[in-house]
Write a structure and sequence with these properties.
- The chain is of the alpha/beta class and 355 residues long.
- The chain has 2 domains: 216 residues, DHBP synthase (Alpha-Beta Complex); 111 residues, Rossmann fold.
- It is built from 13 helices and 15 strands.
- The strands form 2 sheets. A 10-stranded mixed β-sheet has the order 1-8-2-3-7-4-6-5-9-10, with helices on both faces. A 5-stranded parallel β-sheet has the order 13-12-14-11-15, sandwiched between helices.
- Helix 1 crosses helix 6.
- Bound molecules: threonylcarbamoyladenylate and magnesium ion.
Length: 355
């Protein structure tokens, strides 16, 4: 398949260019596009065959439902059952990086919701995404635009790496704004439950939604039960092994010892870099600890960069779990396959290496 690359400005996208992509969606094709969180891979949410193509292109298991993207809260009743309370919440959180799980409307095709009685919906706060939905004339079903299991794409280069030749078009509008996916909250239960921590912290959502239950799994700890269907799969993982230090205080000790196990790459903050340099170990900077939004933006890129280096494995630093930090730690724990270590003695077992 020939993949058309359409370059547009992220803030003032040329409507003719976005129209080219919208025509593809209207005709039942699939298009990767930027949102404020990560790039999505979109299809007409009401076209069963088109939605099916998304699963093919990503290698995504069919039991992992998609998020339906709307151009505004007023479209909500096209896809879900609504009442005044839900509309109030929707109007306050959208457009923005929050996905609401709601009772589904009957006429939504099955591949989108994987046959569940609920549907995940959001209105993205990105000019290109909004223009695309508007010009397509239909809600757009879209998961993140990566191959299943890989880190989500935060720029068009990531999408091209994963999906070139597998999708009809990729809209390139540079880097996304947040770098981690939306926060998913299940509003179909009372009290609401956090299904996936994301770009907007629960601290900011609770004044709007009320008390949100945060299950242990939201931290990204290993668990038998998946709270959102997609959370049970291996996720966000680079090809190379990554271990995560359980505590910032042990990080340098663990990193130093890991150099006896092979070639490490430190996946760390700008603040940590001088100490890492002093050990003579290569670093991949995620962002600044003093501004966790920069860490969120750099997170998935740093995991992809690890695979491009000649390091044997990555050793990641932990971050504060407040606000967007909960999403950062959730993704890091999953990316390491839950290999969290608290002492250098655990390295040989964690890395499957003699050291
Ligand atoms: O920021 C985002 O949310 C990005 C952009 C493109 O919007 N999208 C994204 O989609 O991250 P995806 O498919 O990678 O993650 C969607 C998650 C999956 O874990 C899926 O299982 C869950 O949402 N999900 C979808 N429908 C659901 C439902 N009805 N109930 C519970 N979880 C649902
Ligand atoms: Mg995804």
């Amino acid at each position: 398949m020939n993949t058309e690359i359409i370059k547009v400005d992220p803030i003032e996208p040329d409507r003719k260019s976005v129209m080219r992509a919208a025509r593809i969606i209207r005709k039942g094709g699939i298009v990767a596009f930027p949102t404020e969180t990560v790039y999505g891979l979109g299809a007409d949410a009401f076209n069963e065959a088109a939605a099916g193509k998304i699963f093919e292109a990503k290698g995504r298991p069919r039991d992992n439902p998609l998020i339906v993207h709307l151009k505004g809260a007023e479209q909500l009743e096209l896809v879900s059952l609504v009442n005044e309370e839900i509309m109030n919440v929707a109007r306050k959180v959208w457009p923005g990086p929050v996905t609401l799980v709601l009772p589904r409307a009957h006429d939504l095709p099955d591949p989108v919701t994987s046959g569940l009685k609920t549907v995940a919906v959001r209105v993205p706060a990105h000019p290109v995404a909004l223009a695309l939905i508007e010009l397509s004339g239909t809600p757009i079903a879209a998961p993140s635009a990566n191959l299943a299991g890989k880190p989500s794409p935060t720029n068009a280069k990531h999408v091209i790496e994963d999906l070139q030749g597998r999708v009809d078009a990729i809209i390139d509008a540079g880097e996304t704004f947040f770098g981690v996916e939306s926060t998913i909250v299940n509003l179909a239960v009372n009290p609401p439950v956090l299904l996936r921590p994301g770009a907007l912290g629960t601290e900011e959502l609770e004044p709007i939604i009320g008390k949100i239950t945060v299950p242990e799994e939201a931290h990204g700890y290993e668990s038998e039960v998946a709270i959102a269907p997609g959370m049970k799969y291996r996720h966000y993982a680079p090809a190379k092994r990554v271990v995560l230090a359980g505590d910032r205080k042990n990080y340098l000790k663990i990193l130093e010892r890991s150099a006896g196990c092979g070639i490490p790459a430190a996946i760390c903050s700008e603040e940590m870099k001088p100490a890492v340099d002093a050990l003579g170990i290569r670093s991949i900077i995620i962002g600044r600890e003093s501004d966790l939004y920069t860490v969120a933006r750099g997170l998935f890129s740093s995991l992809r960069i690890l695979d491009e280096t000649d390091a044997d494995f990555g050793v990641a630093q932990p971050f504060d779990e407040r606000g967007i930090g909960l999403a950062i730690m959730n993704r890091l724990r999953k990316a390491t396959g839950h290999t969290i270590i608290n002492s250098p003695d655990e390295l040989p077992h964690a890395l499957y290496r003699q050291c």
